[in-house]
Amino acid sequence: MGRKLVAYFSASGTTKKVAETVAQAGKFDLYEITPKEAYTKADLNWMDKKSRSSVEMNDKKFRPEIVKKPINTADYDEIILGA
């Protein structure tokens, strides 16, 4: 059986909890995709059309800058992505 990785991005922490549960249950490696600038509560206010999360969701030109951490995806036979 090959190596498996659960990679996830979680602005609010909800996806993180699910990713950790899946990784633990399957004994998979875990990799967090981290934004360079953390999200605040105001950033995550989806009811505000000008909030960071709303702008990012509605315009593909606006995506969070990601902290680059070394990982070799070629080491894995399967990658599960959560966001």
Notable traits:
single chain; about 80 residues; alpha/beta; Rossmann fold; about 25% helix
Description:
The chain is of the alpha/beta class and 83 residues long. It has a single domain (4-82), classed as Rossmann fold, CATH 3.40.50. It has two helices and three strands, in the order βαβαβ. It has helices at residues 14-26, 52-58, and strands spanning 4-8, 29-32, 78-82. A three-stranded parallel beta sheet has the order 2-1-3, covered by helices on one side.
Please tally the helical runs, counting DSSP H or I stretches of 4 or more residues.
Answer: 2
The helix-and-strand class reads alpha/beta
Radius of gyration: 15 Å
Number of structural domains = 1
CATH domain fold name: Rossmann fold
Please give the structural blueprint.
Layout lengths: L3 E5 L5 H13 L2 E4 L19 H7 L19 E5 L1
In short:
By secondary structure, the protein is of the alpha/beta class. The chain contains two helices and three strands; from the N terminus they run βαβαβ. The chain starts with a strand and ends with a strand.
